[in-house]
Amino acid sequence: MTRQRHGVMAFGGTFFLILLFCLPALTQEKRTAQETAYVGADTCKACHPELFEAFRKDTPHWKSYEDPKIPPERKGCEACHGAGSDYKAMNIMKDRNLAKQNGLIIYENEEAIKALCLKCHKKDNPYHSVPEFNFNIAWKSISHYAPK
């Protein structure tokens, strides 16, 4: 075997091994993003009916939930708590840390909640006009307990 051919084979073998070990890692993020899906507030309602009913009475948010122009990531429970497909299972939801590891977003303080609110409650919202936003008033109308 010539030295040049041996070098090409060694490079090809090395490249194949690198590809073999790195390809799963390179595709993991894309695969996870594709598999994580918004399940809708009706799914949340199955275990949190009282929160769902309170949400339904909150007219502005309910209107946005029913608006087909607004994408799923901007409405319902998952607009604040993240896409539910990875944490909706009962065995995951019963374990707060496991639910967080699987995508459930839980806010540690009111400043974090306010920052989230301001993503939608701004004058240049592309889906609907938002009146002047007062977090203290708004939070009183939508705050809910954290299930244990």
Provide an overview of this structure.
The protein has helices spanning 3-35, 41-45, 49-57, 59-66, 77-81, 90-93, 96-101, 110-120, 135-142. It has 148 residues and is mostly helical. The chain folds into two domains: 1-35; 41-142, no CATH class. The longest helix has 33 residues, at 3-35. The chain is globular.
What is the SS-derived class? mainly alpha
How many alpha or pi helices?
A: 9
Mean pLDDT: 78
**Helicity level, as a percent range?**
55-70%
Shape: globular
Radius of gyration: 23 Å
Poorly predicted parts: 19-33
Query: Total number of β-strand segments?
Result: 0
The SSE string, one letter per element, is HHHHHHHHH
Strand content: under 5%
Instruction: Count structural domains.
Output: 2
> Could you give a short account of the major beta sheet?
none
Alpha-carbon distance between the termini? 69 Å
Describe the structure using short key phrases.
mainly alpha; 2 domains
Give me the secondary-structure topology.
Elements: H1 3-35, H2 41-45, H3 49-57, H4 59-66, H5 77-81, H6 90-93, H7 96-101, H8 110-120, H9 135-142
Quick structural summary:
The protein has 148 residues and is mainly α. Helix content is 60%, strand content 0%.
